[in-house]
Structure formats: structure tokens, C-alpha cells
Specification:
Aminopeptidase, Acyl_CoA_acyltransferase, 9-stranded mixed sheet, alpha+beta
């Protein structure tokens, strides 16, 4: 049985999903220090050059090589600018199930990039890799992330109470940890039927073009 995902790139009409490289480090540092990324992820804060280089050189490649998942930098097709990241993790080869997480840079929000990149990844995962389930877990207060799940046709399956540590800004300009519920969403192959066409009609973008 195959235990790792192939090293690939996935292209859509507007985006390229590819492995991170060292040229991404400055933009990645800026993205990871955004206040919404700080609030809803467990990434180090402040996010430093050392953190970014460790991510690109060690952590992201190890997700694939160790069989846990795969990590993609999401870039604009025309400008090659880094607009976010998307990753699979907690992959279970026996049940053909995995979890997806995504981050969008502040300068790229409102363009539908998160939805487009997760859709492309889901189509590749279901059609080419034979997977049967993708799970998303969105913090209860992160409405933007929940909207991505809804646009993709994910089904809300329940709430994990008090299940994640998030962060909130303090009056002195710092951050403090808070607990939050997680909404669990499930996406099956049949849930994607017609989704690409609906998104294309609504936002001018569609399904993947190619992967290699």
C-alpha cells in the first residue's frame, strides 16, 4: 500500500499549488504574522525567519515523507505571488480519510482563493488518489473559514466542544490563549457534484486544469 502522497503541483485557472521553496520565506513570514492567522492557528508568534526556514526546509516536506499528509504553497498563476497555503494532515490510509487546513494571506482575501485551492485539492484527492473523505475543523468564531466549507458543499457534522486553543488580542498589544469549540465538516466525493460549476457561475473560476 502506498504510504505517501506523490510530490506534485496542481494548477487551476488562477492558482498553482506547489511545494514551498526558500523564495517563499519573506511572503510567508508576513502572512503568518497577520493578526487573523495569529488568532486562529497555533503557529509561533511572532513568526520569525527561523520559523519560516524550518517550515520550508523541514516541517512541510516531512508531512509528505512521513506519510502524514502533504503541504502546498498557493500562488497566483500569473504573478506567482504567494497568496496562502493548504495542507492535508492526519491522513488515514486504511479509511482513505484526511483533514484539510488552509490559510489565506490578508492581501488575497475576498478573492475565493481558499475555496478554489481546497476544491482543486479535493478533486485530485478523490479522483486520482481514491480517497473517500475529507474533514475540516473550523473554530466556532472563524466565520470566513466556515464559509469556505459551505461553498465546497461540506456537511456540518457536529461540534467538538472546547477542543482547540485559539488566541485573542489583549489591551496591551499582546495575545492570550482562549479555548474554542470546533465545528466538524465532512466532504465526500458525491458532495462535490456540481460544486465547480456553481462556483464558476458565481465567482468566475472553476475546477483544476492539471496536476503533475
Amino acid at each position: 500500500m502506498t504510504t505517501t502522497f506523490p510530490s506534485i503541483s496542481i494548477s487551476t485557472d488562477r492558482l498553482v499549488l506547489r511545494p514551498f521553496d526558500m523564495a517563499d520565506v519573506p511572503a510567508y513570514i508576513e502572512m503568518m504574522n497577520d493578526e487573523l492567522v495569529t488568532a486562529w492557528t497555533d503557529a509561533p508568534h511572532p513568526y520569525t525567519q527561523v520559523d519560516a526556514e524550518r517550515w520550508v526546509r523541514r516541517i512541510a516536506p516531512a508531512e509528505r515523507s512521513q506519510g502524514n499528509g502533504i503541504v502546498f504553497a498557493v500562488t497566483e498563476f500569473l504573478t506567482q505571488r504567494l497568496v496562502g497555503s493548504v495542507r492535508l494532515l492526519n491522513t488515514d490510509r486504511r479509511t482513505l480519510a484526511t483533514e484539510v487546513r488552509y490559510i489565506t494571506a490578508p492581501w488575497a482575501r475576498g478573492e475565493g482563493y481558499a475555496t478554489e485551492s481546497v476544491l482543486a485539492l479535493a478533486e485530485w484527492l478523490f479522483r486520482d488518489q481514491g480517497f473517500e473523505r475529507i474533514e475540516l475543523r473550523t473554530p466556532a468564531g472563524n466565520t470566513a473559514s466556515q464559509q469556505v466549507a459551505q461553498k465546497l458543499g461540506c456537511i456540518s457534522e457536529g461540534v467538538l466542544r472546547n477542543a482547540r486553543i485559539a488566541r485573542t488580542a489583549t489591551e496591551d498589544g499582546g495575545w492570550t490563549d482562549i479555548r474554542t469549540d470546533l465545528i466538524v465538516w465532512g466532504l465526500l466525493p458525491e458532495d462535490l457534484e456540481g460544486v465547480a460549476e456553481q462556483l464558476a457561475d458565481a465567482g468566475g473560476y472553476g475546477t483544476y486544469n492539471d496536476w503533475n
